[in-house]
Each structure stands twice: as C-alpha cells, then as structure tokens.
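Changelog-adjacent note: as of this version, every example in the card shows the full chain rather than a window. The one below runs 227 residues end to end.
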Amino acid sequence: MNLKEYALIVAGGKGTRMKTKLPKQFLALSGLPVLMHTINAFYRYNANTEVILVLPEDDFQLWEELCVKHNFKKNIKLQKGGDSRFQSVKNGLSLIEGEGLVAIHDGVRPLVSEDIIGASYRLAAVHDSAVAAVRLKESIRMTDQDNTKAMDRSRFRLIQTPQTFKTALIKQAYEGKEDASLTDDASVAERAGHVISLFEGSYENIKITTPEDLVVAKALMDDRSKT
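Full-length structure tokens:
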C-alpha cells in the first residue's frame, strides 16, 4: 500500500544563540533563508510531498514577505505554533487526516539529503517509526556532583531529524500530557508504548543554532554545489 507522505517542519526558534533579532530559520544561507533550503530538500525528494510548516503566528507576515522577495511559490500548509515544541508539533499534526507517513523535521536542518528523507519514509512504512541518528565520534563521561565515569560511546547515538512515523501512531502519542523531559518526537512516541527504530543519519545533517553552525552549513552547501 502506498501511503501518503507528509513533512511537518517545525520552525519556532529565536535568534538568542545566534545573537541576532532575526529568528535563525530566516537567516540567509547561500542566497536563501535557512527554512527555504529545508523545505526545498523535501520537494527535491518528492514534489508531491505535502508540507506543513509550523511557525509562531508573529512570524507569518515575515514569512510571507520572504516568499515574495525570493519568489518562493510552494504549496505549503501554514499552521500556528504553540508555546512549546510539543504544542507546535501537535498543532501541525491536527492538519493531517487519514493514514499516511509524517516526517517531523527541524526547520533549521537545511542540509538533510533526499536519501535520508526517502529512507525515513521507507523504514517507517515497515517499522512504524524511523528516526535518524549518528554514532558518537568522541569519548564521553557521565558526571554527578563529585565524580565522573567513562561510558561506552558505542552504546549511544546522537538523535537527529527527520523522525518519521505512521500518522495514526504519532497523533495518538501526542494526545498524552505534555512533559518537558520529552525533548523530541521519538520520546513522545516511546512514552506511549511504541518501539523506536533508528537508522543511519548523516554528520552533515547539522542543526543550525549558533553562528559557527551557519559557517559550516555554507561550506557544506558550497561543496555540494561543486559535485
């Protein structure tokens, strides 16, 4: 059965760590706002992907102005965000009806590849969930107030997005009570009793949160354009 594919892109960040008044998802990267690169990645994967963009309501006008400025004409469903990421994702999910697969993705991960997006949908269709993750490169230690302890880094993964699920599963999971300790969609689904399936992400699939990240993203994007 071919399941309809949705992309729920959450972009509620501010410019705090960027030390700028402009929210990080709207900062320029190789000629376009970061968020437009992210959306374009899903359309490059499949032009028929239904994209739901969740933004703070205060950013709607700015987004519309940027779309005009960059002649960005995509058929996107715009949804108002909530006071937290949990509420924003839940609001976005409310626009989805019927069976399908939804890839929930950070608006500030513009370097996600079509291969990773495609793998997330294929694997979620089989396993109900598919969460991008990468192995740790450096040694890690666990700390408490008085001691530190070396940990086996091979047992840990850094979690990325997309985090892709069958729509009924993740919508049901988000009916639960909000909990600040649940920092991503996989945690919400796991609390609801679902097993989380990981797949290999990419070290290039960075999340832009600091000025240094923007520099790295531009370098990676420039390198891709040469190939």
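Structural remarks: Residues 5-225 form a domain with the Spore Coat Polysaccharide Biosynthesis Protein SpsA; Chain A fold (CATH 3.90.550.10).
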